[in-house]
Description:
By secondary structure, the chain is of the alpha/beta class. Among the domains are: 11-169, Rossmann fold, CATH 3.40.50.2300; 441-533, no CATH class; 540-552 and 589-692, Sandwich (Immunoglobulin-like). The chain is 37% helix and 17% strand. The chain has helices spanning 29-40, 64-67, 93-106, 124-127, 145-168, 196-216, 220-236, 240-258, 279-284, 314-317, 321-335, 342-358, 362-373, 382-398, 402-416, 426-436, 458-474, 478-491, 498-512, 582-587, and strands at residues 16-24, 44-47, 53-59, 78-86, 113-119, 133-136, 293-294, 522-523, 529-530, 540-546, 589-595, 600-607, 614-624, 628-631, 633-637, 644-652, 656-667, 670-675, 683-684, 688-692. The protein has a seven-stranded mixed sheet. Strands 11, 13, 15, 17, 18 and 20 form a six-stranded mixed sheet that branches. Strands 14-16-12-10-19 form a five-stranded mixed sheet, with no helix packed on it. A hairpin with a 5-residue loop joins strand 8 and strand 9. The N and C termini lie far apart (106 Å). Keywords: Golgi apparatus.
Amino acid sequence: xxxxxxxxxxxxxxxxxxxxxxxxGIVPExxxxxxxxxxxxxxxxxxxxxxxxxxxxYRHHYPPENNEWGDFQTHRKVVxxxxxxxxxxxxxxxxxxxxxxxxxEMYGSTxxxxxxxxxxxxxxxxxxxxxxxxxxxxxxxxxxxxxxxxDFIESLFIVLESKRLDxxxxxxxxxxxxxxxxxxxxxxxxxxxxxRHYKKRCQGRMRKxxxxxxxxxxxxQDSLVHYHMAVELLRSVNDFLWLGAALxxxxxxxxxxxxxxxxxxxxxxxxxxGGSLSAEAGNRHRPGAQEVLIDPGALTSNGINADTSAEIxxxxxxxxxxxxxxxxxxxxxxxxxxxNAGVIxxxxxxxxxxxxxxQKRSMEASEFLQNAVYINLRQLxxxxxxxxxxxxxxxxxxxxxxxxxxxxxxxxxxxxxxxxIPEPGWRACYxxxxxxxxxxxxxxxxxxxxxxxxxxxxxxxxxxxxxLVYASRRMGNPALCVRHLSFLLQTMLDFLSDQEKKDVTxxxxxxxxxxxxxxxxxxxxxxxxxxxVPFTKLPIVRxxxxxxLPTSLRPHKMKSLLGQNVSTKSPFIxxxxxxxxxxxxxxxxxxxxxxxxxxxxxxxxxYNPMPxxxxxxxxxxxxxxxxxxxxxxxxxxxxxxGLYPVTLVGVPQTTGQITVNGYHTSVFGVFSDxxxxxxxxxxxxxxxxxxxxxxxxxxxxxxxxR
Length: 706
C-alpha cells in the first residue's frame, strides 16, 4: 500500500523523471543543500535534433514503498540516484563505495543509472576517470557539477528511449507480461493466462504503461494515442484501477498541452504561452530552464529522429478543458473502489483542483477538495497531518475560499501543538494562527475595528484570539499575551458576556502583574509589527469640555490705554449656518483664556461599560503646544455607571496656544494613550485655548463683612 502522499503533485509531474539525491554517511546539512540546489536547477533538458524536452523532478527523500507503484504510473518510479558524500582519506574510500552500492539496492529494480559525488578526496583514487563517480576537492571547488548532471540525464534518456521502443513495438507471438500494483499480486495467482480477458488486461495495462513512457520521453502526441487505446481495452474488461490510471494519463497529457505554463505554481506566476504553440515549444521557452542537448543518434536510427510529436491530429486526441475535469471525476471514482489506492485518489483530487483553479471554476474545485478531506489514509503522523491541512488550506485559498482556507490552517496550527507530540511547536502554531486572521476578517490593528460595523463572526474571532494568547503564553512571551488580550477586550467588548468580561480582565491582570501593557509596537521574529491597543472603551468617553477659570482668576482684557477709538465694525455678515467638520470643531478656538501657572480644568463625561467597578489608576491629559504639567487622577467608576463627570487638571508652564489631544489611562495594568481623533462619538466645545502670561493678582482685603 502506498502510504505517503505528495500533496504538491500536479498534472505536469506525469512527464517528469524522478531522481533521488541523498547523502551517504555524515554530510553537513548546509553543504548537502547547497549542492542539492545546484543539481535541482538542471530540471529541463532539450533533446538534440528534435523538439522533445525532458523534465526532471528531484527529491531528497522518497519512501521506497511508493517506488513499488512505479509500473502503475512511471513518474512514481525512481529512475536516477545521485549520492553525495564526504570522504577525506583514501582508507575510507572502499567503505564509502560499498555504502553507495547498498543505497543503490534500496531502489535497485527501477534505477536506470546512478552517480556518486565525493567531496574532499584527493590523490590517485581521485584521479581515476569513472563515469559513475565524480571527485571534488571541496564543496567550493566543484564547477563541473551541472555538466555531470547533464551527462547523467543523457544516460537516463538513452535507457528511457530504449525501454519505450522495446515496449512500443508489438512483437506478435510474444506474451505481454501483466503489470501489477503491489496489492494485486496475490490476486492473480492461478489465473488462466490464456483467456482473451486476461490477454486484453495485459495489453491494456501495457498500452497505458507505454503512454507513460512516451509522455516522459517528450512525445505528447504518441502518449495521447496510447492512453486512448488503453482506455478502450481496460474498459472492455472492467479493469477499474488501471482504467482510472489511463484516464488520469489522458488528463495529464491534455493539461500539459492546454497549460504550458504549468498548474503547480502560484496562479498566474508563470505566463503560459499562446495556445497555438505546441506544448513542447511552449515548454522550451520557459524562463530560466537549463537547456542541454542530448543526441538521440546514439541509439538505433529506428525512426527516433523523425519527430513524432507533430501538430497533426493532436487536437483530435487531446481532451478539451471541460473533458479533462469529467475524466478526472471518472478516474477518481474508480480509484475510490480500492481502499489501497487512497494516496492515488487523494493526489488525483489535488491535481484536478490545481487545474480547476486555473480555469477559475471554484465551486467544482471545492467539491474535489471536500472529497480529498474525507479520503482515509493510514494513521498519519502529526507532521503529516500538519502538512495535509496546510496544503488543503493553500488550495482553498487558491480558489478564493478564504474562510475555509483559514479553517484548515487553524487545524494545522492546533496540530503543531498536539498533546501526542513530545516537543510541541508553539512557534509554528502561533505563526500559522496569525496566517488565519485575514480569512476570519481579523487584523491585529484596533483602528480597523473603530470604523462602525463589525465584520466577521465575533464568536470565531474571540476563539482565535484566545488561541493566540495561549500560544503566546506557551512560547513564554507575556508581552504578546497582554497585547492579544488587550485587543480582545477592546475590539470584542460588545460581544463578551458579563462572565467573559470578568474572566478576560482577571487573565489580563495576572499577565500585566509580570509585564505591564505599553503603547510600544511589538516586533515579532519574522518582522511583523503588532500596533499598540489603547483602551478607548474602558471607560467610554462621551464628551470633553475645557472649563473657564474660576471667576476670581479669570483674566480681563483692558481697553486700550492710549484711548484710540478702534473700530470694531466688520464687513462680514454673520451666518448661523456654518458647515464644519469634526476636525474644525476640534481646532476651533475657545473664547476664554487660560493663565500660565494657574490650575486649569477639563471635564470629561465618561461611563463604565463593565458589570463591575472599574478602577482607572492614572488618568491625565495629553496636550501639545505648551509645556503642561498634568496632575493625574485615580477614579473608581461604579458598575455600568451611566454618564459620570470626571475633572482632569493640570498647570500650563509656558504661554501660547495649547491643544488638548486626548487623555492617558492605566486600566488592568495596561497603559493607554487615547487620542480624541480616534474616538468617533466624542462631543467637544473645541480643544484649543490661548494661554496668556501669568498676571498680577489683585486682592482687596477690607474690614467690611464679605
